[in-house]
Each structure stands twice: as C-alpha cells, then as structure tokens.
Amino acid sequence: MIDRFAELLVYNLMGLDQATRLGSSVHFFFYDTIKIIFLLSVMIFAISIIRSYFPPEKTKKLLSNRKKFMGNILASLLGVVTPFCSCSSVPIFIGFVESGIPLGITFSFLITSPIVNQVALVMLFSLFGWQIASIYLISGILVGIIGGLVIGKLGMEDEVEEYVYNIQAGETEIEELSWNKRLSYAKAQVKEIVSGVWKYVVIGIGIGAFIHGYAPADLLSQYAGPNNPLAVIAAVGLGIPLYANVVGTIPIAQALIGKGVAIGTALSFMMATTALSVPAMIILRKVIKPKLLTVFVTVVGVSIIGVGYMFNFLVNII
C-alpha cells in the first residue's frame, strides 16, 4: 500500500519517469520516508511498553552485586532493552558508578545500549530479513560483553574523574506503573522520539535516495565490496567523525548495500556513528579521563571492525 501510494505521488502526480535516475531517487525517498516514519511510530510505541518495565533504577538494582562475566552478559542484555543516546551517557554512568557497579560491567551496558537500538533492529529485520537482524543483535551484544570484560580486566577505576565517586545520589523509589500510565508513557515516547529523530531519518533517506539513483554501482562494489579487505576499516574511520541517529543511517546502509557494498561494511559504518561519534566521546570525557577514553575507543573500534569482517564472511555462507 505504501509503495502504491509512493508510485501515485511520484509517477502520476509529479509526472516523473520511473526509468530515470531522478524518478527512481524520488520514489526511494518518499517510499522509505513514509514506511520508516510509520514503522518508527508503531515500534516505538510497542518498545516503550516493554521499556516501562526497566527504568534506570531497576536496571541499576539488577546489575548491583553482579560478578564479572555474568554481570557483563546481563549488562549487555539490559543495554538492548534500555537504550539511551549520547546525551544521557553521563548521568547513567554516574548512577552506575555511584551504585557500586564495577567499571567493566558499566561499560558493557554503555557500549551495547547505543549500538543495539530496538527500532533499528526491527527496521533491519524488515529491510534485510531475520538472519541479518539476528547477527546484528548478537554481534552488538558480543561487542558490549567483550569491551566491558577488557576494560574491567585493565583495572582502570582511577581513570574515572574523581568527582564521580564523590556523588551521593541516594536511593530512588521505583514506581509501579498502571497499564494506563504505561500507555500514556508509550504515547509520549512516540511523540518525543519521532519529533527528535525525524530530521535524521529524512537526511539519511535523502542521502540514501541519491546513492540509490546516482552512485555508480561498479565503483562502490569495487572499493567497498566484500573483496576489499580494507573497506570495513575505512567505513569505521568515516563513521567516527559523524553524529547520526542509528535510525537515520539505516536508509544509507540500505542504499549502499543495494549498490554492492558489503553488508558488514555498511553495518560497521552504522555502529561506528552511534557508538564512537565525536560528540558522544566529548560528552563521555566529562566523566572519564583521556587514557580510559582512548582504551574505550580502541576496544570498541576493534570490536566493530571484527563484527564487520564477521558479517561479510557469514553473509557469503548463509
């Protein structure tokens, strides 16, 4: 139905020829914009209902007094259902450290949460199928577990800014929400998140539409296809300076993959923009010292590169 509406809009009302690059690009833009905004609204509502059962205080209590490894696994899993953006990383980090949660377990949560976005996961499923979505989910969790274990093993608690340990936040009572309150929360989340990310979606789709219609497939396939061993590293390097919501990068990844770019390369680019963007690192620097920040970027960057190569390998045998 959405595809038919986009065809009527672009080819009938606007009079563009579907055989031309312009017509193909404009159709891609309108079709993906309508589809993704619709999917966002529906999935944010459903996910917000689930998220209402995992407020930050409950997450902290679940992670408190957990031993290493099992704590890292639990933290990474909780990062999937309680996502946050870079702007909320500082208060969450402070809350976890203040609660006595080990540094490595805290970082397992901080790494997985921005990488594995449930909305992005659902969109990946709708665009690429359950195999790719499942590998994305598992690899994001593994990056969080491995990254947290490595950081925890290095014993870098002294690389956290001193003021973080001096904060006494105290206990906050966990409110039990009624079903009506959960529905109201979900509606408010749809309004807040869609109003906040729609511009990233439109920009991402616009870039994707241009790539879809005009980017030379042969050139992209040659330099960013599965046969180029350096493509994944280059994609991560390009993704770090950017700041983009993961939802906005999915249309770009879709267009790139359609032009022959390897899936692992495109998804590594996505993960780097959300987990290692420069604005996120500037914010995180407020609570950790340069040495720990460098270790964090290195561990996560190497892990994402490894995930990219793993994707490219697995896609060839699926």
From TrEMBL:
List all membrane-crossing ranges. 34-54, 74-97, 103-128, 135-156, 197-217, 229-257, 263-285, 292-315
Q: Which family does it belong to?
A: Belongs to the UPF0718 family.
As for subcellular location, the record says: Cell membrane
Organism superkingdom: Bacteria
Q: Which residues form the signal peptide?
A: none
Q: Origin organism of this chain?
A: Halanaerobium hydrogeniformans
> What are the GO cellular component annotations?
plasma membrane
- Enumerate the PANTHER family for this protein: PERMEASE RV2963-RELATED (PTHR42775:SF1)
Q: What is this protein called?
A: Permease
Specify whether Kinase is a keyword of the entry. Answer: no
Its membrane topology is listed as:
Multi-pass membrane protein
Name the major location: membrane
